[in-house]
Amino acid sequence: MTKKILVATEKPFAKEAIDLMKGVVAKHSGYKLELLENYTDAAQLKDAVKDADALIVRSDKATKEVLEAGKNLKIVVRAGAGYDNIDLAAATACNIVAMNTPGQNSNAVAELSIGMMIMSARNNYNGKSGTEIKGKSLGIYGLGNIGKLTAQYAKAFGMTVNVYVRNYEKYKADIEELGLNYCDSVAKLFETSQYVSLCIPASAETKASVNYDLLSKMPKGACLVNTARKELIDEEGLKKVMAERSDFRYASDVAPDCAAELKEKYGDRVFFTPKKLGAQTEEANINAGVAAVKQIIRFFDKGDVTFKVN
Ligand code: 3PG
Questions:
Q1: Which residues pair with 270 in a beta bridge?
Q2: Which of the listed residues 59, 200, 280 should we mutate to test ligand 1's pocket, taking the one with most ligand atoms within 8 A of CB?
Q3: Using one digit for the tens of pLDDT, what is the confidence trace for 33-88?
Q4: Is 278 touching ligand 1 by the criterion CB < 6 Å?
Q5: In the chain, where are the structural domains located?
């Protein structure tokens, strides 16, 4: 029986990516690719997943209800890095393998992070004189694929790059190779970095952890760049620091809940993308989309569970 791979994306992949994904499927017998793009209601996803054997999502919510609706579902792949949108416990309970495609869209996100830093340094290009990022300090919070690339690019711009990771031993070689200054606490990272880029996943531990205590420690001319998840920020703490410090700026790929208030009060000290854009490049879509299809085919044909996260 032909296996149905459902690509369910509220925010569709670039056409070029879909064409290449279809090309991979066409080279393997026994698979078909179906698209559910721009859907607006979870009910549409639940309906489309009913007869799917595999599901590919982006930030789409693979909830317990969605996973349970997929009666034939054996695998769900998050075409991207963060899998906080998949109910992993439900996936495991339903015997569904959950995977991500680590590294495939990292370059796009790292480029956006550098871009947002420059944009913020130039007052969101509003015509007023700005500053340069050369010679400034950047704190990278988390050193996964995105953190490493952001650090590398920031070095090329002449920034001093600090880093905090929970597990120093695991990243020791990377920190040395990239020539980064290791901070042994999150507080130290924020204290010593004019710019901070968040490169950590959203988890029970990290949600709302970027709070007033940390933000208020940042040096003069502080700029927080968030290409990770809005949930990392304690918004009350952010609002407090924005109110107390006229030198504090916030740039985020995806608006916080308090976006309208911040925009109204602080204008070009803040910048928010209209929807999550970090991975919204043709290249990132191709890399992550094609990787997701290949992982699914390897899973069914060979039992390969590399990149399983549950
Ligand atoms: C990720 O976790 O891979 C990024 O946040 C990209 O998310 P997106 O695929 O929804 O753009």
A1: 250
A2: 59
A3: 999 999 999 999 999 999 999 999 999 999 999 999 999 999 999 999 999 999 99
A4: yes
A5: 3-104+281-302, 106-272
